[in-house]
Amino acid sequence: MKNEVLFSEVQRFKQWWLWLVLFGINGMFLYGVIQQIILGTKFGDNPMSNTGLLIFFAFSLALSALFVYLRLETVLSPDGIFVRFYPVILKYRFFSWSNVRKAYIRQYKPILEYGGWGLRYSFRGKGRAFNVSGNIGLQLEFINGEKLLIGTQNPEKLRNVLEDLKMYKV
């Protein structure tokens, strides 16, 4: 990515309910490990093995760590858009302006249109979505008919950059 940066945004999962669920799951498994492995008291009516309990606890910690590091990075340059969902997508994906038929900011319904947040695909003809929170995004419609929605927390700044590039088309 050696182009001039006109717009840059980094978004993370900050939903309080997500962190509450992850904290609750980790807490439950930690309690189970303390009860069953350290204190020797079986955890639950039908307890799993110590190994199974440790594996599930490690998995829940790894899942939490993944959410700590997950971030959606969007960069606009005069040549196009770079986007990645780190650490799931390590390299930036580049979308050239020459392949974009329409680019505009729109409000969307994450759950109804894409089934939630993250790396999503709509089976209702809306295409793909990269989003982490909110309900406003940059909608790209490509010459080949494909669609991509990239969530944003800075819609006005993004719209201004698109207008300066003469790419904002509804």
Describe, in plain words, how this protein is organized in 3D.
By secondary structure, the protein is an alpha+beta fold. The chain folds into 2 domains: 13-69; 76-164, no CATH class. It is 34% helix and 31% strand. It has 4 helices and 9 strands, in the order βααββββαββββα. The strands form 2 sheets. Strands 5-8-9-7-6 form a 5-stranded mixed β-sheet. The protein has a 4-stranded antiparallel β-sheet with strand order 1-2-3-4. A hairpin with a 4-residue loop joins β8 and β9 (147-151). α1 packs antiparallel against α2. The protein is elongated, with a radius of gyration of 21 Å. The two termini are 28 Å apart. The model has no long low-confidence stretch (mean pLDDT 91).
| Strand residue content | 25-35%
Give the overall average pLDDT: 91
The parts where pLDDT drops under 50 for at least 5 residues are: none
Helices and strands: which structural class?
alpha+beta
How many helices? The count is: 4
Q: Kindly, what is the distance between the CA atoms of the first and last residues, rounded to a whole number of angstroms?
A: 28 Å
Instruction: Count structural domains.
Output: 2
Number-wise, the strands total 9
